[in-house]
Amino acid sequence: MFLTTVLLRKRIPGKQWIGKYRRPRAVTLAMKQAMIRRLEIEAENEYWLSRPYLTREQEYKHNTEERRAKWEAYKRLVTAKFPEHRYMSDHLDHLNVTKKWAS
User: Is the whole model's pTM more than 0.90, yes or no?
Assistant: First the structure.
């Protein structure tokens, strides 16, 4: 039972674990240790991210050839699925059989 319920004869409305007037969860030792572990991992990530492997000059356009090759391969793959171009002259060529004028 809760102290407020016993002393004031009040209750938490609705479900006690959700909502605006919910019962606060007790912070356990395991919760504190997990939070400290997560903060240490985040601090280590920030440390490694603050020291880049490449400088800005080395990183600038370092893989343009590879990216261009991937783009060309992707374009070839897309155009391979596409049907060939069709022209109206190919569709209407059978009508030119009895053409009277010649020039």
Answer: no
